[in-house]
Amino acid sequence: MLLQRLDFLLPYTVKRLTPADVDEILALQAKHSEYHQHYQTNPVTKADILAELETLPSKALPEQKFYLGFYAQDELVVLVDLVLDHPQANCAWLGLVMTEKTKLRQHYATKVLTALRSALKREGYKELMTSSALSDVNAQAFLNVQGFEQGMVTSVYDPKLGHDIQVVLRGIEL
């Protein structure tokens, strides 16, 4: 039902992405080296994308995960990694929102998040949560503009970096 609601609310085509879409996802993500530097030492690879498509939080099931592509005129313009009912029931977790680099500051991600919040609310969800690296000032600014409340700052071990990173937990009521 979520995908149908998003299709109805947006001027974009929404598609649940799979490993068959890895090249397209990589093409978009590879342009965001400044984002990836907060989470890994090497450029993003196909293997990273394939792992991201399958990675689930603890106790989450594959059917809870939605790795979504939003298309304008057949061009992938926004990626969203979403896990429903995580970390608790009636809460959704936003793992990633990333806009095609040439489309930044054109409000694509804002439109997607606005529609996503509306669709989740209609589905009975109460909160949308996320986290981002404290060092990622672009993500922090974007989440502030979107109305995400800043929560606790905590350290999380990042295996790709081999050390802890500080992340900010954020949430917004739906």
Write a brief structural summary.
Pfam families: Acetyltransf_4. This protein has 174 residues and is an alpha+beta fold.
Distance, first to last CA: 17 Å
Large-scale geometry = globular
Q: Widest sheet: strand order?
A: 1-2-3-4-5-7-6
Main beta sheet: 7 strands, mixed
Counting helices, strands and paired strands, the structural category is: alpha+beta
Helix content: 25-40%
Low-confidence stretches: none
The quaternary organization reads as: single chain
For the secondary structure, the number of strands is 7
Tell me the β content. 25-35%
Report mean pLDDT, rounded to a whole number. 92
SSE string, helices as H and strands as E = HEHHHEEEHEHEE
Question: How would you describe this structure in keywords?
Answer:
174 residues; alpha+beta; 6 helices; globular
Describe the structure.
By secondary structure, this protein is an alpha+beta fold. It has helices at 2-9, 22-29, 33-36, 46-54, 108-122, 137-146, and strands spanning 13-16, 65-72, 75-84, 91-99, 127-133, 149-158, 163-173. The chain has a seven-stranded mixed sheet with strand order 1-2-3-4-5-7-6, sandwiched between helices. α5 (108-122) links the parallel β4 (91-99) and β5. α1 (2-9) crosses α5. It is globular, with a radius of gyration of 15 Å. The two termini are 17 Å apart. The mean pLDDT is 92.
